Amino acid sequence: MPSFQRICTAACLGGSCISLGFIIGRVSKKETNELPPRQSHAENVETVSACNPLSKAGPNLYSLFTLSAATPYRTSAESSVIPVQQPANAVQNMVKYGFPSTDNLRSYEDFMLSYDRRNRVPNWVLEHLTPEKVTVNEGIERSKMQFVEDESVHAFHRATNKDYKNSGYDRGHMAAAANHRQSHNAMAQTFTLSNIAPQVGQGFNRDAWNNLEKYVRALARKNKNVYVCTGPLFLPQYENGKLFVKYEVIGQNHVAVPTHFFKVVVVENTSGQLELQSYVMPNQALPLDTKVHHFLAPLDMIERAAGLNFFQNIPKGTFHKVNSPPPIKY
Amino acid sequence: MPSFQRICTAACLGGSCISLGFIIGRVSKKETNELPPRQSHAENVETVSACNPLSKAGPNLYSLFTLSAATPYRTSAESSVIPVQQPANAVQNMVKYGFPSTDNLRSYEDFMLSYDRRNRVPNWVLEHLTPEKVTVNEGIERSKMQFVEDESVHAFHRATNKDYKNSGYDRGHMAAAANHRQSHNAMAQTFTLSNIAPQVGQGFNRDAWNNLEKYVRALARKNKNVYVCTGPLFLPQYENGKLFVKYEVIGQNHVAVPTHFFKVVVVENTSGQLELQSYVMPNQALPLDTKVHHFLAPLDMIERAAGLNFFQNIPKGTFHKVNSPPPIKY
């Protein structure tokens, strides 16, 4: 079970060996068999589509579910239909292969997310990347962008810059800023704190995790479409024979520090073939020379641990490659 | 700040003093001022209602959001509109004062819930109680009922009886079985594992928590309507000057053992006056003589910790009583 060994290696790097007990009994021997049943978990989406038979999968459907980024929190008396401001096809493209969940959705110009109000971090963030989107645009300067609170979230459940200050953690992007170079607005929106989770800086956010993000952009440059779902994990550890989930919370609003992060990537090459790559990285300083393929992990492990299903509209057996190691460069 | 002292007392009972740091700065001095802004957080509900203007708040609206209990997990190809099998007004009555959240909703004959797929326990369970519903019905025998898996949840995220077996924890009801005596089916559905969370048995589920449930039924017997929202909390503790959330997970599916449970109760008396009572209890053996009023806790503390908003359709200042101690008997 090479991929299971890899995830164990990944989880144990840095000295903190995380239990993956509930995977062991279920991981299939062949990587191509590791995928779970390809079933849709987007019940709400399906049932609402019935409400508008003329728009079975059109943009109107998704606008019913999502708040655009600029929508401040408002009372029920004030709200009605909330205009979605992103390009008409942006969300459609992102959710082409399914919704991971339908809780507290927010749609931005070039990514969307589900927000975890209990932990003040995303549940998941979904992006659709193309060669054009990741091409460097000299006019857009990341250094001028600022982290901002998400005013569409009730103040009780909102992460703030103050929560991160002096915490020792970076404000880590889930949708990477450099994935969204089409417009100033698209990149600026990745600095919304709903797209952010506390990450170890040196050795992780600025190194190993950054390498994974760079690798995904390299994939996007060389392929037709890349779909990326990124988010936190809170994995348990053994202590005196029992399993415990343990994670730090920072700031007055108790922003959760994930123990790990996942990244699930579907690559559509220029021939239309689909490849799956799924990664788990522990949120800790990692050896600088670690290749990204050390963090490949079975998709079903991530799905169980995150409580999510990814890209469930892709039928089982469709992928021509699953968790094949990337070229040696990465 | 009497209510804050109470919650500290509650949290410290049993020797495990839980940090409530993020509450301290925000608890108002007067109980009547402790309520947060009364705002709706049910964005999805509002936006979907616009999809069907003829049914602004009718049963069709809610049927779009909820799966009935008997609906097995199915693929997107199989699902369309899912019939809701409970009495037409049951869900409407439960959500009269608002939805706590709109993630993974399940509606049963006499209660509804939001399921936490990551933790395999409910996010919250909502009930509407009346004198009739809690009246003992001799024909319905609780002892004959069995705990069952929720087949509407994907197998990756479903709690099973095997997970609880030999764990040392009770299968604790969120919607109490004895609150639903109208029919065999209504009570039997409370034994679905989506309505269950691991609870300490002796001293908690069978004692202190049971006393709170009995007290709520006593309220239901004496008043016109009682609305109850119940669920788990995962509260942080200080360790070496930092705050950590730590909780056990049990079984192959890693069912989370909550550190605490909340119960938020809105009582409408026969004059139509509304009273709010909100409780937090640590999931541990508690002294047998502890009165329920020791566990009264500010609503905003629960809302922040749970990532939820409760009964948000009730305007601020409407309650004629907030967290007034119950009679000495309890």
Describe the structure.
Two copies of one chain form a homodimer. Chain A is an alpha+beta fold and 330 residues long. Chain A has helices at residues 2-12, 21-24, 43-49, 59-65, 90-94, 161-164, 184-189, 201-222, 299-306, and strands at 67-68, 105-107, 111-116, 121-129, 170-173, 196-199, 225-233, 236-239, 242-250, 255-256, 260-268, 274-282, 321-322. Chain A has an eight-stranded mixed beta sheet with strand order 1-2-3-4-7-11-12-13, with helices on both faces. In chain A, strands 8-9-10 form a three-stranded antiparallel beta sheet, with no helix packed on it. A two-stranded antiparallel ribbon of chain A has the order 5-6. Residues 1-65 and 75-84 of chain A have low confidence and may be disordered. Chain A has nine helices and 13 strands. Helix content of chain A is 22%, strand content 22%. Chain A has one domain (2-322): Extracellular Endonuclease, subunit A (Extracellular Endonuclease, Chain A, 3-Layer(aba) Sandwich), CATH 3.40.570. The first copy, chain A, is globular. The longest helix of chain A is centred in the middle third of the chain and has 22 residues, at 201-222. At the A-B interface, helix 3, helix 4, strand 9 and helix 9 of A face helix 3, helix 4, strand 9 and helix 9 of B.
